[in-house]
From TrEMBL:
GO biological process terms on file: asexual sporulation; proteolysis
Protein name: Sigma-E processing peptidase SpoIIGA
Any Pfam family the entry gives: Peptidase_U4
Protein species of origin: Clostridium tarantellae
GO molecular function: aspartic-type endopeptidase activity
Length: 181
């Protein structure tokens, strides 16, 4: 099937280039009198680049799909279910309890009120050298489901909120720390 698709695409490109070099009329037969090899090579290059980008995109989607989890967390009697992405470079932990930190978009729970005594200050450092503190709260249990499975991984964790969107496409609303798995 893929071979047939590639063959038809290649033939279509070659025919398009042949039409651009030779005169064509509906009243006469179509004859290819001159055809430059550069157009044949150009067609091969176009097909190679297209197939290469399609394969790269499919591999990327497969990798991302394997790193997506369904996250269920209960914060102040608000039961939240969102898609979460396992960020393998995220080693964020709360320094005293060593609990893993989950970063959640603030837009999911905009009106949550948390007192200062419930807050944890979690230090973070970015690759570009910027560092600071994030405020988070401890939740007793988070449940992670892999690929819509019925079995969940239950862990204690710290939830931090961020004001920015974590993903432009909206595929996930939370970032998981590597320590949560």
């Amino acid at each position: 099937l893929i071979f047939i698709m590639i063959s038809f695409t290649f033939c279509g490109l070659c025919f398009m280039f042949a039409l651009s070099q030779n005169k064509y009329s509906l009243l006469e037969n179509f004859n290819i009198k001159n055809y430059s090899i550069k157009y044949l090579i150009f067609a091969v290059i176009i097909i190679y680049i297209t197939i290469n980008r399609i394969i790269f995109y499919l591999k990327d989607r497969f990798i991302i799909k394997n790193l997506l989890y369904d996250l269920e967390v209960n914060i102040k009697d608000n039961n939240i279910k969102v898609k979460a992405f396992l960020d393998t470079g995220n080693e964020l932990v709360e320094p005293i309890t060593l609990l893993p930190v989950i970063i959640l978009e603030k837009s999911i729970i905009p009106n949550i009120n948390i007192s200062e005594k419930e807050m944890f200050n979690i230090p973070y450092g970015l690759v570009n050298g910027q560092n600071g503190y994030m405020k988070g709260i401890k939740v007793n249990e988070v449940k992670l489901y892999k690929n819509n499975a019925s079995e969940a991984i239950s862990k204690q964790a710290i939830i931090c909120f961020c004001n920015k969107k974590l993903n432009i496409n909206g595929e996930y609303k939370a970032l998981l720390s590597r320590g949560i798995i």
